[in-house]
Amino acid sequence: MSGVSIAVITYNSEAVVVPCLESCREYPVVVVDNASADGTVAAVRSFPNARLIPNSENRGFASAANQAARACETDVILLVNPDVTLLTDVSPLVEACALPEVAAATGLLTGEDGKPQEGFGVRGFPTAATLAFEVLGLNRIFPWNPVNRRYRKSLRNIEQAGEVDQPAGAFLAFRKQVWEELGGFDESFYPVWFEDVDFCRRVRDGGYRILYEPRAKARHVGGHSVRALPEECRELYWYVSLLRYASKHFGGLGFRLVSASVVPGAILRAIASLVAGGGAAVAASYCRVMRFAGGCLVSGRLPDLPGPLRRQIAAVSSLTGSGQVTPSARNI
Question: pTM above 0.85?
Answer without folding.
Answer: yes
